[in-house]
Amino acid sequence: MKFNYCLLAIDGDCSDHGMSHVADALPVSDENMPFVADFLKADLDWHLASAQDDISNSNSKPDARYETFSKAAFKLRALGIFQHKWHYRTRWILVETESLENGSYGDKWEYKGYLMQKNVSEAYEALKALGVHVLHPRLAHGGHFAISGELYGDRSQGDEPELKLDYYENYMGENTLIPEILEEHGLHFEWINAGVAGVYSQ
């Protein structure tokens, strides 16, 4: 699953001047991009109508543009992109993940909103607790998440032989704890390149 773009909060409850000192950044997968596009179009249409005092409400039916906005927002909640009501009350822009991580939008933000399936999350947290060099799916290496095959050289636990994958000397990971833990959760790994292995469902 690729996350080449994020929704970045720029105003409202979840911006860096809302309820927190950092803005929420919500990863958007390629397959969910059409729904995010629908939301951003509806959001702009609704706010432009509001700015121009062009809203027609009646006792029986709210403005059609607000209904379209609400429907698009609820869809993002159903997809797990929006997490709570405060995300509805926030203004968003679409940014490239690479630009965000390279500092183009400053450093007052943090990732929120990516939901792993239960078995995937449990495997990720189990490996992480052991010290394995797991790579979050927002980094878009591939698979549910990824595992580094690089030697960090920082004396971390993940550099220990039983916790480190090695493309050249331990291709199947048979000398590590990793395959067993993944298998317990219905997962396995495949090498993406010599430095990164992706984790996939069996």
Domain count, please report it.
Answer: 2
Q: Name the beta content range.
A: 15-25%
- Major sheet details: 4 strands, mixed
On the 0 to 100 scale, the average pLDDT is 88
Calculate the terminal CA-CA distance, rounded to whole Å.
Answer: 16 Å
Series of H and E elements: EEHHHEHEHEEHEE
Low-confidence stretches: none
Structural class: alpha+beta
Shape: elongated
- SS element count, helices: 6
Evaluate the radius of gyration: 21 Å
The count of β-strands is 8
The largest sheet has its strands arranged as 3-1-2-4
Helix content: 25-40%
Give a structural overview:
By secondary structure, the chain is an alpha+beta fold. The chain has 2 domains: 107 residues, no CATH class; 84 residues, no CATH class. It is built from 6 helices and 8 strands, in the order ββαααβαβαββαββ. A 4-stranded mixed sheet has the order 3-1-2-4. Strands 5-6-8-7 form a 4-stranded antiparallel sheet, covered by helices on one side. The chain is elongated. The mean pLDDT is 88.
